[in-house]
Amino acid sequence: MRDEYGESLAGASILVIDDEPGMRNFLTKILTPRCKRVEQAGSAIEASAALDRNHFDLVILDNIMPGKTGLDWLREQGKVGLFSDAILITAYADLETAIEALRVGVADFVLKPFRANQILNAVARALDRKILRRDNSLLKHELSVEGSTARGRLLGNSIPINNVREMLTRLAPMPTPVLFTGASGTGKEVAARTLHTMSDRAEKPFVAVNCAAISQDKCAEDLFGEINEDGQGRDGLFLLADGGVLFLDEVAQMPEKMQAALLRVLEDQRIRPVGAERDIPLNLRFFFATNADLPAAVAKGTFRADLYHRINVVNIDMPPLKERSEDIVELAALFMDQFTKTLALPGLDLDDDTLLKISRYSWPGNVRELRNMIERSVILGAFPEEFAGGGQVTGSRAIETLDLVTKRHILNVLDACDGNRAEASRRLGVSRKTVDRKCASWGM
User: Fold this and answer.
1) Closest by alpha carbon to 160, among 189, 196, 197, 191?
2) pLDDT 10s digits, 400-429
């Protein structure tokens, strides 16, 4: 049954700070059934210790506590490192208190005395705003990262791609880091996103970071976050991804200084924002990707050996398109359908001749090259000369004839055997005469 206060409470961790046991217990009693984790602190010292141990989405604190006010405590914590929103409970809502609360970043006030529904509504509003800020930051990040557009599913039914699917299924329920390797354009990010959607973190963020594109000058701030001179914190990508997956693409090009910092995060699952004095615990799963030879980079000294062994727990090597040629027709048809819709242009007929030429091409740029070729062809209204067949402009998808399937399969096997017809006939399970007869009918 859906909670009337919204779904944001379900995954939230909240720290209740009040020196009165009755108030702490009351707040804990109404929040615990709706939230992921609720902890109590009876003093500023206990609250600070709790923040050292765990990260909280929200703190609820009384403004009047022994020794110092809640606002004084928030101001101090901001300088040390406070990346939680705050709700202030107070019996006095004077203008001076309100102004000071805004300065230290209080998300909401709740005036004493209050009812359960008032505090629950305040918590829901604060969490909704926090989630909205996070989603907005992640969207800006996605739009700013060139190449971070992999949203498709893992397509094809070839043996290599089915082996990848089986490995993803096995890894989905585990917290294990995964290293995706393979040439550029083979679908490493698509596979990583597929694994994320199959895991129990599917409802949490998937944050992709291109290590080759991130600014070295602001790398630490962008990843770890920072605290400015006023004690206000800015979440980094690590914290924005908390609970979900951080995907570090082109990891081989990460600066050496950041390699050491990443190793510490992997080992401790904690980060320290720039300018902070407190570590923040994280709950992250890490995916990595590279088209580089990491062992060679380790041997050259450009990539840390200890980091390589830490990220290389499970390696999924994405097959090049030339090793899954039977998937090319499905991919070409999908891209044709996709671009005719998104570009509002007529499609090109994927006739037998065109499909045969496409399937026999080596595609050094892999799936990305095929996708770009289809998009360019739709825009120009014709296939490149090396792929052009006899088809006209249509809106239909590719339908292969039996003869085309047979021809394409035999020619692919012949290519794999370097033209040796005897070996090809053995692999095909047919006689040499059958292969010779088919080749003769094709003018070969």
Assistant:
1) 191
2) 455 666 776 777 777 777 788 888 777 777
